[in-house]
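INFO batch 0412 | record 1 of 1 | parsing
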Amino acid sequence: MKKILMIEDSKKTSFILKEVLEQSGYQVFLEHDGVSGLAAARREKPDLILLDLLLPKVSGFEVCKTLKQDNSTRHIPVIILSTMYNDENIEKMKMLGAVNFMKKPYRLEELLEEIKKRLK
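INFO prediction complete | emitting tokens
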């Protein structure tokens, strides 16, 4: 079973998405801030990370940067899910190593397709 780590501060959004992903056959870990998200990434070694940019304690930008600088997590694909969708942020996240940037609110079918593609 593929493991997905979701780092998202909106509890309502994350619980709904967690349920959908679990029904699709994934094991999902949920963290609500950047610090616990980084710890979970190192501990759980997920196959994919869904990352919000606006997080308490440590921003999504810093989380992605830290993940990609760490030998134990740099190989994990990171998909950004954020309302902060603009050319500057998209470019910045590509440079930091994210594989995709999806604007919130996203279409669930598109997100599930992207996850499936990244977990082949």
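INFO post-check: The CA atoms of residues 48 and 77 lie 5 Å apart.
INFO record closed
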